[in-house]
Amino acid sequence: MRARPIGLALIGVALVWAWLALSVPLAAGVADTSGGAAGEFLFSLFVFGPMLAVAIGLAWLMRTLEGWSVRSFGQGAMLGLAALALAVSYCAVAGTLSIGGIAVTSAWPLGLLSIGVQVMAEEAMFRGYVQPLLVRGTAAATGVMATAGAFALLHAVLGATDGVELTNMLLGGLLFGLLALRGGVGAAAGAHLAWNAVEQLGLGLDPNPGTGAFGALVDLDLVGAARWGGSDTGLNASWAMTFALTATLGFVLPRSVQQKPSFSAAPRAAHR
């Protein structure tokens, strides 16, 4: 066990939590003042823009931000879409999936940019900086699990309190961590962005019910049993998401064991 990379990783996590505690209330005020799609975009830009810049800077200094390629991003995106489709299918079988109102897509490009900033900030920090350092300081399995735990706690800081929701965030963190470990940060970012963007802008499942300020291509709602998505938190606090992520992890894990990590578990000479 190496103390230095572990300490540097913990500093990164602490910076994120401190920044969120400071910035979210301020950004919420800005968003309320602006309103609509512009307010939502400004919120994401204000909160996650600096986080993305800091994450890239830290990862560049420690040379941990590796594995960005169109191929890995595309493979991750396909896996994220498959996992989301499985979760929605579970909801359909459970009888909670329904057609909502008329979808509006006028602010779709702005929404994609907003979601992209948040996803890239989270992945650059957690899978691009924190996880590689924890893997260097401990071991691959420990690094992935610890980073997933920090990722789940990030969502607790952002307001998630439901036990199933936090469990799903943990499972999502494990999935993204395994993808980053073997396919690079691009694979994790692709899966994360594909799920979030299609859930919100494609299917209109977040927020639930209705659609957000950016609109959606179609408006699907989850109505009925809360544990099958029929609550204000939708898929995030549903067993459908739990089962879908577990199944996807079952698909990814054996392949992760068979492949070599996308980044070196040892620090570069210039940064020892």
From TrEMBL:
GO aspect biological process, one term: proteolysis
Residue ranges the record marks as coiled coil: none
Domain CAAX prenyl protease 2/Lysostaphin resistance protein A-like: 107-198
InterPro entries attached to this UniProt entry: Rce1/LyrA-like_dom
Transmembrane segments: 41-61, 73-95, 133-158, 170-195
Superkingdom assignment: Bacteria
Pfam families, per the entry: Rce1-like (PF02517)
Keywords: Hydrolase, Membrane, Protease, Transmembrane, Transmembrane helix
Molecular function per GO: endopeptidase activity
Protein name, per record: CAAX amino terminal protease self-immunity
Taxonomic source organism: Sphingomonas mucosissima
